[in-house]
Amino acid sequence: MISPIKADMQVQIVNFLRNHDLAVVATVSDHKIPEAATVGYYFDDDFNFYFLTRKESRKAQNLARNPNVAAVVGTTAGPNSVQLEGKAEVLQSGSEEYKKLLVKFAAIKVLYYGPFLKMAGIDFVIVKVEINWLRWLDINEMTDREEFYQLLPETNLPSDQ
Question: Which pTM does this prediction carry?
């Protein structure tokens, strides 16, 4: 059974991620140098994080060698953020999952991806990140509260890290 604290935080996290469009994604180069870029993303009910990138981008090249990825979705209001880490997988362009996600990206991310999807000669991939660590930061200026809540790996207690 999910604890009331965990259930409430999970709802807040899902709502937060569904109400935002952009994240900063970090990958690691061959030389162990972190590389970060802003991406549009989609978040599903199974706590998977997806983003679209050019097939020849540094992100895609880095992930082909090292599937570890980190991302942050944040705001200045609050501020609030979700930090996550996981293993990335590049989805096959002909798969049913890919086709369904492409429709979601086209529908949800029209302003961010619209021009990108229409550029001739650009090959892109959808990257699926299976999240293995996720933390929610909620700073409430009205109550002067600062809360960290780690949802993954599973925990029922707020984290102070």
Answer: 0.81
- In angstroms, rounded to a whole number, what is the distance separating the alpha carbons of residues 89 and 95? 13
Euclidean distance between CA atoms 142 and 48, whole angstroms = 32
**Phi/psi at 75 (nearest 5 deg)?**
-135, 165
| CB of 43 closer than 8 Å to CB of 49 | yes
Residue 13, CA distances (Å) to 32, 37, 61 in order? 30, 22, 30
Q: Which pLDDT belongs to residue 161?
A: 45
Q: What is the pLDDT of residues 46-89, one digit of tens each?
A: 889 999 888 889 999 999 999 999 999 998 777 789 999 999 99
Separation between Cα atoms, residue 93 and residue 46, nearest integer Å: 21
User: What gap in Å lies between CA 4 and CA 36, rounded to an integer?
Assistant: 35
> Could you report how far apart the first and last alpha carbons of the chain are, in Å?
25
User: Residue 146 corresponds to which tokens in the numbers above?
Assistant: 């600062």
* pLDDT tens readout for residues 6-44: 778 888 889 899 888 889 999 999 999 999 999 889 998
User: Rounded to an integer, what distance in angstroms lies between the CA atom of residue 102 and that of residue 32?
Assistant: 31
- Host H or E run for residue 6: helix 4-18
